Amino acid sequence: MPNKTHIDQQNTNNKPLYLKLSEKLSEVINSGTLPAGSKFPSIRRTATTYAVSTNTVIAVYRLLEDQGLIEARPQSGFYVRHQLPRLQQTLSTKAASAPPTQTVLQLIETTFATQQNPNFTNISLACPTHDSEFYPSEKLGKIMSQILRRQHNIICEYALPPGSLNLRRQIARRMLDVGAVIDVNEITITHGCLDALHLALLATTKAGDCVALESPTYFYLIPLLAALDLNVIEIPTNAETGLSIDALEILLQKRQIQAIVCMPNLHNPLGCSMPLKSKQRLAELVTQYQIPLIEDGLYCELQFEKTLPAVKAFDRDGWIIFCSSFTKTLAPDFRIGWICSGRYNQQIQQLKKHLSMTESKLLCETLAQFLVTGGYDYHLRRLRKHYKENMAQVQSLIAKHFPVGTRTTKPKGGFVFWVELPGDIDTVKLHLAMLKENICLTPGALYSPNSNYSNALRISCCYPFNEKYRSAIELVGRKACEITGIASTEEQTKHVQYRVDISSKKL
Question: CA 183, CA 107: separation in Å to the nearest integer?
């Protein structure tokens, strides 16, 4: 760092001083001027160097910590964290229409069973479990008790489709945050988001039809599509910008698909979000070709900073069906989701009635009341901060312990991201090797109907960041180094230091 620098105190572009300084220090780190593991200047020194107050520097350092760029070490100061190269290229896929292979279906079933085993350390299941720090369980319990005292007969009633009016009103209100104006009568309460996706597919397709999927995609969609006897075309998906709109348009022009399923905000497993213009173009295309788009908005409320609009916000004629749930944010066991059905509203309500009839009125009213009180917004702010910190720590661990050349996506929300390993490696073999260590991960092949992405895996950061979880990440990294024959950054550093020490002794 320079001996003396001045940060313009004038707030150009309405940008606060601490943000301007954090951007400057980020550039210093990302450029390699201060390499990974090096000591970061003290708060007092930085304040003197840039002619700012110590309070400003403290705010900057907190922001850099949240971004995963630096870490505080007790009694030692701040250090630059290990960083992973960003995964940016377009992911290649097979563009053939076909049902999911039996290989990937069997792998999904095996992995899903392992994820439910309490004896395994799970770094893959995209749902926080066994820890109340992620969910307001006590508050929900109090609200439920109050409802039961006031309405003791509530458990004796059916909540027929479309479901709780109070909850649907709150959902419609929250849909405004993603730019979508939804009539409460267009919303149907479902048994989680997967139920919503199921209903949407039933309403828009028939056996033998072809569905366009992002690739990679949420892996439990694959057995659902197989069960409905639907064929799949994988759409190349960019790790930064989402599915290829150009590739999709070609398929639409050729009338090769009958429906589209995608996750435009905080994609699972990549963690990326589509740019605004791409969302607008996507909405225009499905309207032009009159092909339904099933939008999975499961992670929309877990965006770390500015909330990006859903594609549903640009829906003119009801061709976009929006699906989501409270599973990732509030209460997985409640299994309360919803679907905004657009022009398919009547069909979906009928299907819901015929297939599963209703959802628990007690649970729906409990969630509705929690949303009304404002407790949900506070909970979300806390949850986002927690996940952001976890993700930064996990990515730093991977950068340190995984093979040199490992690349990762850099999500701006949620708690999952995509990792691509270098060299000759099959992450299914890595997955099987880790099962022997009672560690469960999800290999890249799960996220493609055609078992693509043999060198990739998904990491989930929605667990308590304790020693057990940390050790599991490190062990996966060591095994990956062993399989690829490529050392980790930490091992390379040790080797270089050893050579330096030996040379010094010779002298």
Answer: 41
> Would you say residue 132 has pLDDT above 80?
no
Burial grade of 48 (CB within 10 A; 0-12, 13-18, 19 or more): middle
User: What are the CA-CA distances from residue 206 to residues 99, 194, 219, 321, 357 (Å)?
Assistant: 14, 18, 21, 17, 21
Per DSSP, helices labelled H in 93-159 are 102-115, 137-150
pLDDT at 397: 93
* CA dihedral of 409, 412, 414, 416, whole degrees rounded to 10: 10
CA 87 to chain centre: 15
User: What average pLDDT does range 180-188 have in this prediction?
Assistant: 96
Q: What amino acid is encoded at 302 in this protein? A: L
Percentage of the chain with pLDDT > 90?
57
**199-217 burial, b if ≥16 CB within 10 A, otherwise e?**
bbbbbbbeeebbbbbbbbb
What CA–CA distance (Å, rounded) separates 452 from 93? 7
Q: What is the pLDDT of residue 7?
A: 55
Distance CA 190, CA 469 (A): 33
Report the C-alpha gap between 56 and 54 in whole angstroms.
5
Residue with tokens 């929900």: 140
Q: Average model confidence (pLDDT) for the chain? A: 87
Q: What's the rounded Cα separation, in Å, for the pair 184 and 341?
A: 11
Please name which of 121, 128, 118, 69 lies closest in space to residue 414, comparing C-alpha atoms: 128
- Tell me the C-alpha distance between 321 and 318, whole Å: 7
What is the widest separation between alpha-carbon atoms in the chain?
87
> Nearest CA to 210 among 237, 227, 233, 194?
233
Peptide bond into 269 cis (omega under 30): yes
Pairwise CA distance, residues 115 & 118, whole Å: 8
Of 84 and 145, more confident: 145
DSSP 321: E
Structure tokens, 451? 């078992």
Q: How confident is the model at residue 14 (pLDDT cuts 50, 70, 90)?
A: low
Backbone Cα Rg of the chain: 24
Contact call for residues 270 and 237 (beta carbons, < 8 A): yes
Token output for 301: 């409320």
Q: What is the mean pLDDT of residues 427-441?
A: 93
Q: For each of the domains in the chain, give its residue range(s) and CATH number, in order of start.
A: 12-80 (1.10.10.10), 136-376 (3.40.640.10)
Query: Which amino acid, 74?
Result: P
pTM to 2 decimals?
0.82
